[in-house]
Amino acid sequence: MTKLLEMRGISKAFPGVQALSNVSIDLNKGEVLALIGENGAGKSTLMKILTGIYKADQGEISLNGEKVEIPDTKRAAELGISMIHQELNLMKDLTIAENIFIGREPKGLMNLFIKDHELNQMTRDLFNQLSLDLDPKTKIEQLTIAKQQMVEIAKALSYESKILIMDEPTTALTEPEIDVLFEIIENLKKSGVGIIYISHRMDELKRISDRIAIMRDGEYVDTLKTSETDIKQVIHLMVGREVYVESKPNIQRDDREVVLEMKNVSTNTNVKGVSFALRKGEILGFAGLMGAGRTEVANAIFGIDKIKSGEIYLHGKKVKISNPTQAVQKGIGFLTEDRKHLGLLLDMDVKTNVTLASVQNFQRAGFVQEDKIAKTAEHFVEKLKIKTPSIHQQIRFLSGGNQQKVVISKWLLRDCDILIFDEPTRGIDVGAKGEIYRLLEDLASQGKSIIMISSELPEILRMSHRIAVMSEGRMTGILNALDASQEKIMELATAYRE
Amino acid sequence: MKADSIQGQLEAPKLKKTTGGKLQQFLAIGSLVVLVIFFSIASPNFMQWSNIIGILLSTAVIGILALGATFVIITGGIDLSVGTVMTLSSVMTGIIIVNANLPLIFGIIGGILTGALCGMLCGFAITKLGIPPFVATLAMMMIAKGLALVISDAAPIYFTDHEMFSKIALGTIIPGIDIPNAVLIFFILGIIAAVILSKTILGRFNFAIGSNEEATKLSGISVDRWKIAIYGLAGVFTGIAGVLMASRLNSAQPALGQGYELEAIAAVVIGGTSLSGGKGTIIGTIIGALIMSVLTNGLRVLSIPQEWQTVVVGVVIIFAVYMDILRRRKK
């Protein structure tokens, strides 16, 4: 039997990274193939090659046994390949019908006017096929995220796709909505559509997939029949590599004073009844999948997101932090994931960036004391070993690791004793990572308390004294570093709680 | 249980949103009505027929500019060049009719094409050269201003020998009813603009681009081409405004026009079109333009000095844009 889709020996390199090396997968008609792997395993890159967004360096793609070239997204659509992206691609000010058939509107009178009536009817017909109950004339912005996702799916199906790629389609859906989605998927299977289903939720894979293809570090690992495998085996293959335990902190901090405590905190932004305590000199790792609510917890502590219920205690005293200024005054520093946009002024130099947040301390009668600023900046450059030709260098020209160090100095200068790092080593090369790790360890041993949000399990395991794991906005468990393992963390991170 | 409560959370903002969009439209109409009632009570002269016609006539030119600007602003862009491009169109019409002594229709078409060409050039600079709309149209504003002075030798062109020309704006085509053509043209163009915006492909893509340009591109639509078309269409409106302006003044005044773009943008914004794109209506723009002229006229009828009139309009703009911000903040 010829396969609906075969991707053979696909390789793709980006400057500095081999994103895919020699990956092969295949897909049958009427089958759901789950594609799984950790963040950065290369799933998205592979799918972007299939949909014509990227071009592979090597390898070939065949549809029904025939070799095809997919140079752009248009060609992919013509071949019947559609993808439902995780970030929804809808025009929120337009109606459902207008979105689904954009660029393909039924036209009348000199091909200028749109037959809206017909357009809405086409949409209604489509929805009937999918048993969706939505009014085509509703504007997208009035829909819940879940319903927007349904619209995306309907849009993809309206192209009469033969291959449908779904990237974490259930992230925003509730249980009944997932049931509807799975029903749609079952119907699609019956009509011969092949589906590549990307998900992190093991329970879902069991329910919906026929086979599971596993990727790790840009390489293909194995494909298993879902019915003949169990979740443990899949996770093991997915995590694969030996756990990196070079300098796992062996000192526990349980006896230390609690500096920050969250009690049953909920927000409107995916934090649901989260409780934990952070001790002095401790690195508390936050593990979980994308969308688990980790950054939102940090936002709640830092006063960015409003707390709906629950309490925050600092040094045993109940506090209310309603904006970042108050958080900083209370000694909390937040090193955001997107440091280029939120943490640094790229066009300004090292000394300005280091001292920016505390410039009040470097002025006399309103005049900036350049010499004092320079001295302080020199001090941090030396202390944190920031590699820069001088303190007058623009931040833009520093490497990712050194940029991160500048952000860290900025917060140290403000006397923050609680530091929240969101993905501290994202976009930083391997060598510099080690330096950032050492720096975090130094900070902790000097008595700073650190929350480290990271999606890289080896990093979490290596750095943390304890590991808090989140799933779907909830804290699913807090593990002691000594008895934590990648498998245990993944199990908690994918725990689906009723 | 859990699913229900999440569903509830997701659904909750829905009610607010549906009313949010219409709120400012409603506010705009409401403000217009309140203003009219206020001025009628404050001054018996306000509701005089001749005064009403005066208001409508002064709305026409700015209003037509604002109609074009509405399309551009819905894409999320801005057009600062409409004031001086309007002048350039006036001057072009004058040169064709007076200096070259060609039939009126050539002058009219020439003026409109001038506007369209300038608009398309802005669109080209924005899409193909990647220059931000603010900068591209600011440059066009200066280019058009300079060109208008160059080709007219910096002197007004009078249409005194072409009596018919002034009839375009000031004649009355409907017998017995004393409504100047300029006002009729404004309302007819309003209807045309509304139809284009809500019924045609161009209108649809206009909203799509303003709403999410990336997603529009990914849907296989050549965003660049449509943007150039939209700036060109706005230019057509600008050109028409230029011809009407010349007709009304019975002369092409090369030094006039700068500042009109800001009044046009103000009318669009007061009418509820969002400067961040994706939202807006033609009826809103027409009401916005009317609010501006009713305000200035009413204040003049009440003998409030010109300087203060400008202050009041400024305050109204702040109020209107603040409404826009409030509306967006709700989301």
From TrEMBL, chain A:
<dbReference type="GO" id="GO:0005524">
    <property type="term" value="F:ATP binding"/>
</dbReference>
<keyword id="KW-1278">Translocase</keyword>
<dbReference type="Pfam" id="PF00005">
    <property type="entry name" value="ABC_tran"/>
</dbReference>
<dbReference type="GO" id="GO:0005886">
    <property type="term" value="C:plasma membrane"/>
</dbReference>
<keyword id="KW-0472">Membrane</keyword>
<feature type="domain" description="ABC transporter">
    <location>
        <begin position="5"/>
        <end position="242"/>
    </location>
</feature>
<keyword id="KW-1003">Cell membrane</keyword>
<keyword id="KW-0547">Nucleotide-binding</keyword>
<dbReference type="InterPro" id="IPR027417">
    <property type="entry name" value="P-loop_NTPase"/>
</dbReference>
<dbReference type="InterPro" id="IPR050107">
    <property type="entry name" value="ABC_carbohydrate_import_ATPase"/>
</dbReference>
<dbReference type="InterPro" id="IPR017871">
    <property type="entry name" value="ABC_transporter-like_CS"/>
</dbReference>
<dbReference type="GO" id="GO:0015749">
    <property type="term" value="P:monosaccharide transmembrane transport"/>
</dbReference>
<feature type="domain" description="ABC transporter">
    <location>
        <begin position="251"/>
        <end position="497"/>
    </location>
</feature>
<dbReference type="InterPro" id="IPR003593">
    <property type="entry name" value="AAA+_ATPase"/>
</dbReference>
<keyword id="KW-0762">Sugar transport</keyword>
<keyword id="KW-0813">Transport</keyword>
<keyword id="KW-0677">Repeat</keyword>
<dbReference type="InterPro" id="IPR003439">
    <property type="entry name" value="ABC_transporter-like_ATP-bd"/>
</dbReference>
<dbReference type="GO" id="GO:0016887">
    <property type="term" value="F:ATP hydrolysis activity"/>
</dbReference>
<protein>
    <submittedName>
        <fullName>D-ribose transporter ATP-binding protein</fullName>
    </submittedName>
</protein>
<keyword id="KW-0067">ATP-binding</keyword>
